Every structure is written in C-alpha cells, then in structure tokens.
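Pipeline run #58 for the internal structure catalog. This entry was flagged by the ingest filter as a single-chain record with no existing model, so it goes straight to prediction. Upstream metadata was stripped on purpose; only the residue string is passed forward. Reviewer on rotation: M.T. Logging verbosity set to normal.
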Amino acid sequence: MQKGMHTDTERCVRAVQSKDARFDGWFFTAVLTTRIYCRPSCPAVPPKPANMTFYPSAAACQQAGFRACKRCRPDTSPGSPEWNERADLVARAMRLIADGIVDREGVPGLAARLGYSTRQVERQLLAELGAGPLALARAQRAQTARLLIETTALPMAEIAFAAGFSSIRTFNDTVREVFALSPSELRTRVPRRNAGAVTPGVLTLRLPFRAPLNPDNLFGHLAATAVPGVEEWRDGAYRRTLRLPYGHGIVALTPNPDHVACRLTLSDLRDLTVAISRCRRMLDLDADPVAIDDQLRTDPVLAPLVAKAPGRRVPRTVDEAEFAVRAVLGQQVSTAAARTHAARLVTAHGDPVDDPEGGLTHLFPSPEQLAAVDPESLAMPGTRRTTFTTLVGQLADGTLNLGVETDWSETRARLLALPGFGPWTADVIAMRALGDPDAFLPTDLGIRKAAQELGLPSTPAALTARAAAWRPWRAYAVQYLWATDSHPINFLPV
C-alpha cells in the first residue's frame, strides 16, 4: 500500500470486490448511481466497477456530494496509516487536524504550527486529499456528532456544541447532508444499548483497528510502567487521566478481539474528538500490521518472532511532553525506580482530579508546573537534575516542541543537543512520543540482550547496520525483540 492508492483504480476495485478490511481508511469508494460512499469492506453487494470512483478521504467524498453508507459507516473506519508513517507537511497537518487544531485555532493556527502559509497548506491538502482543512475538520465534526447522537442521551443542542459546530442550524444541516438523516432520525435508528449509561460526561465507544492486534506488549508496557495516581490497570482495563484543551478526562481502555472498548469521563465534552485521537495514537490503532509484519518477516531471524505473535503495536503516549519527562526520570534506573520518581512529582505538583472509581488522583504535571520546581528538591544526581530542568524549561517556554506536528529528524537532533541526552533517550522519545515508526534503540539493554540470544550483532553500530533491512519499521522490530524477554512489559497483567 502506498501514497495516493485511490488513484490505482484496478487495485481499489479488487479490494472492494474482496471486501478487504485492511484497506478501510486507505481510500473510500463512492458509488455514482446511489451517491453513497463506503469503506472497501462494505458488506453490501459491490457495485459494478464502472459505477465506482475512489477518493482519498471521507471529506473529499462529502465535498463531491456523496452521503455516508448507513451499513458500513465509513466515517468510523480506522484512520489512514499514512499519517502516522510520514513526516511531510500533509501527514503533520492531518495529525494536527485529528487533534482538533482547526476547531480551536482555525486554519491560520494550523498553518502557523506547521510553519507554512495558509495557502500552501490548503493547496497541498487539496492536491493529496481532495479536501482542504476546513472540509477535513467538518468531516471530523460530523463523525463526532454521530458518535454523541448514537451513544448518549444528550440534548441535540449540547451535542452540536460538544462536536464543535458554531450553531444548531449548521449542525442540523451538516448531519443531514453527510448522513442523509436528521439528528433525531439518526438517534432512533440505533438500538438503545447505552440507554442506561446516562452518567453525565461518561461516554462508551468502540475504537476500531486493523487486525491482527497483539495486546500483550501494548497494554503490558503501559501497565508495567504506569505512574501511580495517573495510570492503573484495573479489571482488565488500562486507565489513566488526560490533560485536554478544555479540561481533563479519565479513560478506561479494554482490549477485545475486534475492537478496543473505550470509556471516557470528560469534564468538557468539547474534548471528545481530541481524547479519542490521543487514545488511538497511544495504542497505535491506525497502524497497518500486515504491511509491517510482511516486511519484518523477510528477515529469517525476525520471522519466527512475527509468526509466534503477529500484530504487535508500538505503545505510545497521550502527552508527548509527559513522556519526555518520564524518559529522563527513567535514565539508568529500573522501571520501578522510574515509577517512584514520577509518582513523587505527580503527588507534589500535579493537579488533583476526582475519580469516581478511585485509584486515579492527579493529572501529570505540565512543563510549566515542573519548570517552577526547586531543583534542589529533586531526588536525583546533579547531572540528571540539569537534564531535567533544561528539558522542562525548554518545553515550558516553547523553545522545544514535541507536538504531533513536529519533524521527527529535526526534533531528534534538537533533543540530542540537550545536556544529558544520549541516543537512547532521544530515540525512545522519537519512538513513543513523536511516533516515528522507524526509530531504533541499538543501545537499549533489552535489545542488545535479545540480539545476543538471537545471534544478531550486539554492538550498536553493527546492529544498526543489520537493522537497515527492517526499515521503515524498526520501531516495530524493537517490540518483537523486546518480546523475547520475560519482563512484565511483554505480558497482559493477570
């Protein structure tokens, strides 16, 4: 699968005729006779090839006057893997749009964060996706509105506000145009499975993904490194607090065979789209595991590891700055010690939150809060104290940005320029915070141990040279290599 797949008509037709769910989110099928657009795996009888046309985004379909299919619900398909694989302008713009920037800061805010003019951003998005930033944000608002209409008992006026619409009229018009149903008709079509779940601010939804997904290292890593007060594993779910643009939230994420169950408690419903986007990103749910595993399987050393447990994801983060701070706290100490250091910071400087279920007590402190901490109060060696204070100072004043719009190579270079930042710290941040799918950790103790056991070169330079065959998926190779060990990060908690 590659950039611009929607232009390969023959390949798209084959995917639609085979109802291949792996292609959901890569492109959308618009049917000229019915004026409906679908995901490739739509269960309906495939239309004649002459009646199909293909678009790269739901927004492009909507702009061309097509309505979303009521059977396959193309607006709920996993996102395109491209936006998490690429670091160019379009990919970075799409990550920002998913994070709600257009709704909060408008197109000028989007362009400013990317360092381009609004005209350049609009031109590139239109050329590749068939829709500009406003249309893409509108499609996202429509999807959020549908989710709230179908899964909550909220009044329509509150839903319109929470989904980011400027008026009730715009909300009604958009829903009717995109789904060919009024908001009230959308609600009556859905069985009231969630009729009893009317707790204010609590939403229950399903996060789709491309199969296979191996939850062991994904949830195992998040649970094993959980910071007390901010994260916990409870009743088969990973729970954590979220710092969001309009307020805060608590999320519980439970792995299931065909989806991840997500229960969100939000102080402000306007944060719904952002919260979902960040949870999907943390769990790497938009990845294309078949393409990744096919590439890694070509290496005879990795092939048995992939065959044993395919579909490993890279455990990422909901807050890039938080992860960078935790990476510094974890330098040259055990997982348990890193959790202890982080828990002290949380208790002393994090904002308290109310968790109705108990267990979670705080938001992780922001860079601004940590920049105000007295360095002498930090229980760590002097050199690491300097590393910590420099990092949080630059994050707080904006000198260093680790947001979803950052250029991976440039940001990694900036991290390496900080005092106390070696390759391991920069690379683990690149892999788990920035989301670089090709980040590699040749100096990591677990990787070197796995390499030695598997007969791979164990020196960083030789291992890096050997790993060239795994590009552009070296971050996923790291997960398979880590999994050769019995460390708790590799197993779902019992």
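catalog note: The radius of gyration is 23 Å.
catalog note: The chain has a mean pLDDT of 93.
status: ready for reviewer M.T.
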